[in-house]
Amino acid sequence: MTKEELRIRSKAFALRVMKLVDALPNRRSAVAIGNQLVRSGTAVGANYRAAWRGRSRAEFTAKLGVVGEEADESCYCLELISEGALLNPPLVLPLLNESNELPAIFSASHGTLRRTNRKEHRAKRLTSKSRIPELLKSRNL
């Protein structure tokens, strides 16, 4: 999945979350869960966009981890709505399925980036350690 496809998908997820929350009943528990769902559901796309504006690969990787956390939190809220019978399960199921897929996508990407970053960091560290004798010789130390 491309960067642009994920941007579109995460934004569509946020819009669908907003519509679902608007359909919740006006009960204390529904309002509390709905508020949390709107925050986490819209944070998925917002943090994904912010990740691409990161200043470094490490910052991008960290922000992508936050995206996965927000997507997982949204999934939890949707499970509560469904299992708590705040809405009919058939209304929640499509969004719940999407909320299960998004954390998996972002977690896989985050894991791949972390492994790549570690490998590159080790390679740089090994390269710099192996150059120490060269540097000492060149400086007559």
Describe the structure.
- This protein has one domain: de novo design (two linked rop proteins).
- The relative contact order is 0.12.
- The model has no long low-confidence stretch (mean pLDDT 85).
- Helices cover 86% and strands 0% of the residues.
- The chain has 141 residues and is mainly alpha-helical.
- α1 runs antiparallel to α2 and α3 packs antiparallel against α4.
- The longest helix has 42 residues.
- The protein contains five helices and no strands.
End-to-end C-alpha gap: 53 Å
The 3D shape can be described as elongated
Structural class by helix and strand composition: mainly alpha
Number of strands: 0
Low-confidence runs of at least 5 consecutive residues: none
Helix content: over 70%
Kindly report the name of the CATH homologous superfamily: 23S rRNA-intervening sequence
Number of helices: 5
Look up the CATH topology.
de novo design (two linked rop proteins)
> Beta fraction of the residues?
under 5%
User: Can you write the helix and strand succession as a string?
Assistant: HHHHH
Quaternary structure classification: single chain
- Indicate the mean pLDDT: 85
Give the tally of structural domains: 1
CATH class: Mainly Alpha
Question: Which SSEs are present, and which pair or pack?
Answer:
Layout: H1 3-22, H2 28-52, H3 57-83, H4 89-130, H5 132-138
Helix pairs in contact: 1-2, 1-4, 2-3, 3-4
